[in-house]
Amino acid sequence: MPPKKKKVPFPRYVRINTLVATADDVHNQLAEKGWILYSYKKESVTYDDYLDLVENLEGSTYMEDYHIPELLVFPPNTPFWNSELYKENAIVLMDKASCLPVFLASIKPGYNIIDGCAAPGNKTSYMAATINNTGSITALDNNPERFKTLNKLVQQRGATCVSTLLEDFTKLNPDQYPDVRCIFLDPTCTGSGVGFHQDKISEQRVRNLASFQSMVLKHALSFPSVKKVIYSTCSVMVEENEEVVKKALDMYQHQFKLADIKKRLPGWKNFGCEDYSFSKKVCKTNPDVDKCQGFFVAKFVRKEKSTCSED
Ligand code: SAM
User: Fold this and answer.
1) Which pTM does this prediction carry?
2) Catalytic positions (predicted)?
3) Residues of 187-202 as b/e, b for ≥16 C-beta within 10 angstroms?
């Protein structure tokens, strides 16, 4: 039997919360604490080279992520819980995979957004930072305990453009949101990408989740004004990802198509299951390669007659 490959822990990812601090503030404070930024030039370093650098990151050295400008990469298990930056909410501990839906959405200041499954609010607060608190975000969750956390977190992170609703997203009346431009859906899933072992998840649970996920996605696509719908899960199972996307496309392909997200991910090699015609248009992280958790993202964009694209 070949020797088992030692599992290397993921790096520690830190998102700069630009609603509280600038990137310069954060880099300066890190330098004061002895951290050294390892600068590399994207033009001369490929994504593969970058992954090697991440694998060898150690000591007091950190880097910027290859794709997401506001994301910093530290050696695995770097503790930040007691740092001033963390306590002041100038940084948020958030895995790269979890940042991808917001990064890939290309949302802009002034957008009206619905986050349909929002708690605890990591992506909601990242969205607010991306649009610099201009425009609006309606963030829903139907779980009262998680809703409390959502409110707390949104407030602590300075996300003032967010209004929260303790409500079931599927009960939201699309006609009451005539200006919504973008909907994010990050529904409950098996969590098979973040350590829940697939062989311990019952087939019935997967079926129930997949049917709920299909329902929320189809509901989002029914909003008359929506131009983009971002569907994500922290599952790596086809039933919760590619199958859900396929069913939604079967129903809505006259109105929506999948955006080409490769453009925002230079060097990226991991996409959907090749059994699906759209496999190269959806992103599925491979934890062993991409050094982040298992995640899936699909971005639906409304087909427009004009040349103005929402991609
Ligand atoms: N997007 C969140 C973040 O980045 O912090 C994580 C979302 S978590 C994976 C899924 C959330 O969806 C849970 O908080 C759950 O309570 C909520 N949820 C499940 N069904 C829902 C529904 N029908 N309407 C609204 N929220 C729902």
Assistant:
1) 0.95
2) 234
3) bbbbbbbbeeeeeebe
